[in-house]
Q: What sequence folds into this?
């Protein structure tokens, strides 16, 4: 129990301008291994405040393992991880990670609690961290978060088994946003969505990120997502982050994997699509206007 | 210590009242003042946010819903606050209620009772349908014996039969000891301690061996069947089987059913034998009946039809346990909680049916002269 008598304490944000404030996520010398199988070796990564960082890499290169290490679900063999100024790797048990109220996580399948309705799912973190919030306010918060994630109001009373895959992702996003986090982790948010739904989800993430001032750590295989909304992209290969930068910067490097990734037929198609949408005034460069041009983007892509 | 949000009312020069927020308007701070805010009565000329130190969507929602309710405009909002308020007011007009909150208690009880009753009737039909499916699948397998899954059958026999030997043996041994000990105490009053042999032998072979085994198998394997099939249903494995053309009844249910029906009489006899050994061990230690004399007496006092009674009940109990496990597992539709309730239902249904049928068997066999 903390001093103010609450069950779950919440950390104080770092002072503005400090290193921890500038880089919400800092990973140094990370090593992860399952038995003899080494996933990461000497991996370094910095995520800047207020950016959307895309993480790419071939299947099995440990993108999800990296995310699980950062959020404290996977104990690394070596290295240090700092999130919002708090060391994750030195935490002795779950209770030591008191920054959990300042991040939100969207798992690949949504990971909604299957016995609770969508609204109740969103209310879980609120109940856990802020028990003083009245029922009325909590219901209202849950409702506008669900609506903000692009679900209709009727969805609040539905159970996860009654939702489609895309709706589950949106509901998962609503739960990830429940506490107004500074940091959002997204594990393949557009996987399994149709192209129009995926484009709409990309724009939703972009607009939420800009409105709420989020820092986003985004794992994806979706090249359109990379071109449309990511400020920088980190490439995982050879057990570490081999390059971080904007897509033009990455294409300029001569690593064979990066070259074949961005210059393959899919990479070129995504680039062409993003150039078309830039010409229409949407995409990462001009995402403020996204909502009006959404329908056009779907038609063009 | 968390900083708390606060608000005050200020009387302007023109007599109009302004609501002024101060401190952080965030999710961590607003919970403490929400009740007071909801009790506020207007009229207010404006809601002033210029003294709020920070704001998040919860602060934006609070300010916006308050301004809607009191009809007062928001003033002094930072660009950040304005952006958040615009984003929220664009999606939520505060009219639709939060759906899906539960019925009031007075309605919930009759609602639940009604659901259970109608569920019972449907459940009976579903069980009948399930048995029909099993019969059909058995017919198909008889016509195409090549499709029978021998490996699955052997695997299930190992899981539910061989792996249960230790626990069933221990349980039966202890039950044998208890019967012998309690029986001896009562029979001693007539000086008829030697009848402990009859008691242990007949009870183990006729009733307790197979009954205790059925209860143990229902707990061990009936529950496992329900949880396995239920989880496979949730992960769409069973749907995948259907689309490939593999019948889940043939591939999953029949091997489990057959394995249980084959192993149950064997386990029952094994359990009875161990129970008799337990009884003999106790008699040797406390009643002065030598171990092998006890076993020899068993042959004399237990009629052969007692063995048949136990053996006949075995496959029937096995059928009940495996059917209820597989049936409940395949009924799972929605979520993880249902796997739990269905598993419970499988075990409860199996044990209850086993005991009911055991009572029928007791009457039946004594009527046909196998008393």
A:
């Amino acid at each position: 129990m903390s001093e103010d008598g609450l069950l779950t304490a919440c950390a104080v944000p770092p002072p503005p301008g400090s290193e921890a404030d500038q880089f919400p996520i800092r990973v140094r010398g990370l090593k992860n291994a399952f038995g003899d199988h080494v996933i990461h070796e000497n991996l370094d990564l910095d995520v800047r405040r207020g950016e959307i960082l895309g993480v790419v890499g071939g299947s099995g290169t440990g993108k999800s393992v990296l995310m699980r290490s950062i959020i404290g679900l996977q104990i690394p063999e070596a290295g240090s991880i700092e999130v919002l100024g708090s060391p994750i790797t030195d935490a002795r048990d779950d209770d030591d990670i008191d920054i959990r109220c300042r991040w939100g996580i969207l798992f690949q399948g949504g990971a909604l609690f299957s016995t609770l309705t969508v609204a109740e799912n969103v209310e879980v973190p609120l109940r856990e961290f802020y028990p003083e919030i009245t029922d009325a306010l909590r219901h209202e918060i849950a409702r506008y978060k669900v609506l903000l994630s692009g679900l209709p109001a009727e969805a609040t009373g539905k159970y996860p088994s009654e939702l489609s895959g895309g709706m589950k992702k949106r509901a998962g996003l609503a739960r990830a946003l429940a506490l107004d986090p500074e940091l959002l982790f997204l594990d393949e948010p557009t996987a399994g969505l149709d192209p129009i739904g995926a484009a709409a989800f990309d724009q939703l993430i972009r607009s939420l990120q800009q409105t709420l001032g989020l820092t986003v750590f985004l794992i994806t295989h979706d090249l359109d997502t990379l071109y449309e909304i990511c400020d920088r992209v980190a490439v995982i290969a050879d057990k570490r982050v081999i390059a971080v930068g904007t897509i033009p910067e990455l294409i300029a490097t001569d690593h064979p994997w990066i070259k074949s990734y961005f210059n393959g037929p899919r990479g070129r198609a995504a680039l062409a699509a993003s150039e078309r949408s830039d010409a229409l005034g949407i995409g990462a460069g001009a995402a403020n206007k996204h909502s009006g041009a959404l329908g056009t983007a779907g038609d063009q892509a | 210590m968390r900083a708390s949000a606060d608000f005050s009312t200020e009387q302007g020069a023109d007599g109009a009242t302004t609501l002024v927020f101060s401190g952080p308007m965030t999710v961590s701070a607003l919970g403490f003042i929400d009740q007071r805010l909801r009790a506020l009565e207007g009229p207010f000329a404006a809601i002033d946010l210029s003294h709020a130190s920070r704001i998040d969507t919860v602060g934006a929602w609070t300010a916006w819903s308050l301004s809607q309710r009191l009809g007062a405009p928001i003033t002094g909002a930072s660009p950040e606050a304005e952006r958040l308020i615009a984003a929220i007011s664009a999606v939520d007009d505060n009219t639709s209620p939060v759906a899906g909150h539960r019925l009031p208690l007075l309605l919930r009880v009759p609602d639940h009772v009604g659901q259970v009753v109608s569920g019972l009737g449907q459940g009976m039909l579903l069980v009948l349908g399930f048995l029909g499916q099993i019969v059909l699948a058995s017919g198909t397998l008889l016509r195409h014996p090549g499709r029978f899954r021998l490996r699955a059958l052997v695997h299930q026999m190992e899981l539910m039969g061989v792996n249960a030997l230790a626990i069933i043996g221990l349980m039966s041994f202890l039950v044998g000891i208890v019967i012998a000990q309690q029986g001896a105490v009562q029979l001693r009053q007539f000086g008829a301690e030697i009848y402990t042999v009859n008691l242990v032998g007949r009870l183990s072979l006729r009733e307790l061996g197979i009954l205790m085994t059925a209860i143990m198998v229902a707990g061990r394997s009936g529950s496992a069947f329900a949880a396995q099939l239920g989880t496979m249903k949730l992960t769409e494995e069973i749907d995948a089987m259907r689309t490939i053309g593999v019948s889940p009844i043939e591939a999953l249910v029949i091997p489990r059913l057959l394995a249980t029906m084959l192993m149950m009489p064997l386990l029952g006899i094994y359990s009875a034998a161990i129970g008799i050994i337990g009884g003999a061990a106790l008699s040797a230690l406390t009643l002065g009946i030598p171990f092998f004399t006890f076993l020899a007496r068993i042959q004399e006092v237990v009629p052969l039809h007692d063995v048949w009674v136990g053996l006949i009940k075995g496959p029937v109990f096995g059928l009940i346990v495996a059917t209820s496990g597989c049936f409940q597992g395949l009924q799972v539709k929605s979520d993880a909680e249902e796997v739990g309730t269905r598993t419970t239902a499988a075990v409860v249904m199996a044990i209850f049916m086993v005991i009911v049928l055991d009572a029928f068997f007791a009457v039946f066999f004594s009527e046909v002269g196998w008393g």
